[in-house]
Amino acid sequence: MEYKGYFYKEIQVKDYKGNRATMFKCSDVALLEHTDITFFTKFTEKRMKEAIEYYIGNVSYHKKLKVLTYKATNYFLQS
């Protein structure tokens, strides 16, 4: 499946009781390159599209956040 040039897929999952459910998983490298995550899931296709829109619209925020996370990690590891 594709939305605005980014790919995601439908997956089948089970909960702790063994009930099956359908979810949507996105692991598009181009979409998530400015984040610290490699994939995300949503329960509905509408929510997946909203999340893709969020990542498209907040690239600069996630670039800044990634730099801050890197600095904080370095500070923590040097302590």
How would you characterize this protein structure?
- The N and C termini lie far apart (45 Å).
- The model has no long low-confidence stretch (mean pLDDT 96).
- With 79 residues, the chain is of the alpha+beta class.
- The longest helix is centred in the C-terminal third of the chain and has 20 residues, at 59-78.
- A 3-stranded antiparallel sheet has the order 3-4-5. A two-stranded antiparallel sheet has the order 1-2.
- It has 3 helices and 5 strands.
- Helix content is 47%, strand content 25%.
- It has one domain.
- The chain is flat, with a radius of gyration of 16 Å.
Secondary-structure blueprint of this entry?
Blueprint: E1 2-3, E2 6-7, E3 9-14, E4 20-26, H1 29-32, E5 40-42, H2 45-57, H3 59-78
Mean pLDDT: 96
Number of helices: 3
- Largest β sheet strand count, sense and barrel closure: 3 strands, antiparallel
Gyration radius over CA: 16 Å
Instruction: Strand order, main sheet: write it out.
Output: 3-4-5
Q: Helicity, in percent?
A: 40-55%
Number of strands: 5
Task: Quickly give the structural class.
Answer: alpha+beta
How far is it from the N-terminal to the C-terminal residue, by CA?
45 Å
What gross morphology would you assign? flat
User: How many structural units, i.e. domains?
Assistant: 1
Q: Which stretches are low in confidence, meaning pLDDT under 50 for 5 or more residues running?
A: none
State which percent range the strand residues make up.
25-35%
- The string of secondary-structure elements, in order, is EEEEHEHH
